[in-house]
Design a protein that fits this description.
By secondary structure, the protein is mainly β. 3% of the residues lie in helices and 51% in strands.
């Protein structure tokens, strides 16, 4: 599915690949919608006031345009690349659900990060989780990776066995 205009839909699941290409467009009523691979090459903002919507991509989320989450939650089943931090703004809680996936690129900051899958921190810079690192999955520190935790850490698994990695905890 490719769309260049505003999106108006609710509680749609099982969508395969979706590409959004519009400029300065809005996604309305996104709660309950699940995408396979979601590509945003245009500029979109979620409109859900107050922020209670969520965006779920079970495959890869690729944002080469821009996406303003307006404080809403994001769930990602694919790899998370650091350029997403410059393309996706104002996101609320982020949940990573993929298996054998990675967080890659330069620096990245989350307020709340839930890992319910298995992800490896392969950032060349610093991964910062300011408020809470939670989830039923495992976050593995890659070689020479740095993780800064500023709040609570109740994640089921945190593997910091790789050489040269650093975990800084400041509560």
């Amino acid at each position: 599915i490719e769309e260049a205009g505003d999106w108006h839909f609710d509680n749609i699941t099982g969508l395969g690949a979706v590409t959004l290409t519009g400029t300065n467009k809005t996604i309305y009523s996104i709660t309950g919608n699940t995408f396979g691979n979601l590509t945003i090459s245009g500029s979109y903002a979620l409109d859900d006031t107050p922020p209670t919507a969520s965006l779920t991509a079970t495959g890869e989320l690729a944002v080469s345009g821009s996406l303003d989450m307006t404080g809403n939650a994001l769930s990602e089943g694919g790899n998370w690349t650091a350029d997403q931090w410059t393309k996706i703004t104002n996101f609320g809680d982020v949940t990573l659900t993929g298996s054998g996936k990675q967080i890659a690129g330069a620096d990245g900051t989350f307020a709340n990060l839930r890992v319910n899958g298995t992800y490896t921190n392969n950032l060349t810079g610093i991964l910062t989780v300011g408020t809470a690192l939670t989830g039923s999955g495992t976050l593995t520190q890659g070689s020479n990776a740095t993780l800064n935790l500023g709040g609570t850490a109740t994640i089921s698994g945190l593997n910091a066995a790789a050489s040269g990695n650093t975990v800084n905890y400041n509560k």
